[in-house]
Amino acid sequence: MSSKSNNGPPSELDFEKALMFFHAYMYGPLQGKLRLYAARNVRSQGAAMSSDWEVFASMLVRDLGQKLAAGVDLSNHEVKSAVSGGSYEYQYHKETGKQKLAHDLKVGHLFFEHGDNLRVVNLRYAHGRQLKEFFQKWIAEYPDPYPQRYRKSIPFGWVQKNATLLMTITDGEVTYPESAQSDRRSS
């Protein structure tokens, strides 16, 4: 597990293992499908599933998932993804929503921003304490009676301005931080 999971941004990112997954199961297959779709004049749908981002994040920050349990995605991190410029959606369930909101205040949040069919990916980090303005408001407004779904979102602009940039991938390669580039070249 990442040593700074509860105190700040993860500091020991496993770029090699995470990028192997990204290339083999996310980026590579998507680029292949896009070529086939273009040849057949078929429009492409979404770039990656939320579970793909969770596995990628799990490998990158060395934090295992919570199996099939409801709640936070990884042991110490919530994982969110959005197309560039889109907001990051949080969904709360009737039986566990308030408990999850309280827990969201205590863990790190990993925000993947992706565009151009995964050719550009940014990963930013904010601890739940930084997101307190959102979570406390959502707890205060928690509906009673509970509707079918309680969905809230954190704006892209807030994440871009306030969260710490951990990584940028451009055309399948880490372009930020520069130390990751030299690590991959030397191995």
Give a structural overview:
By secondary structure, the protein is of the alpha+beta class. Helix content is 37%, strand content 24%. It is built from 6 helices and 7 strands. The protein has helices spanning 15-39, 50-61, 97-104, 132-140, 156-162, 178-186; strands at residues 77-83, 88-92, 108-115, 120-127, 150-154, 164-170, 173-176. Strands 1-3-4-6-7 form a 5-stranded mixed sheet, with helices on both faces. A hairpin with a 2-residue loop joins strand 6 (164-170) and strand 7 (173-176). The chain is globular and about 50 Å long. The protein starts with 14 loop residues before the first helix and ends with a helix.
Topology readout:
Layout: H1 15-39, H2 50-61, E1 77-83, E2 88-92, H3 97-104, E3 108-115, E4 120-127, H4 132-140, E5 150-154, H5 156-162, E6 164-170, E7 173-176, H6 178-186
Parallel strand pairs: 1-3
Antiparallel strand pairs: 2-5, 3-4, 4-6, 6-7
Helix pairs in contact: 1-2, 3-4
Strand content: 15-25%
Strand order of the largest sheet: 1-3-4-6-7
Question: How many distinct helices?
Answer: 6
Contiguous low-pLDDT stretches (5 residues minimum) are 1-5
Going by helix content, strand content and strand pairing, the class is: alpha+beta
E-strand count: 7
Topology order in helix (H) and strand (E) letters: HHEEHEEHEHEEH
What is the molecular shape?
A: globular
Biggest sheet layout: 5 strands, mixed
Termini separation (Å)? 23 Å
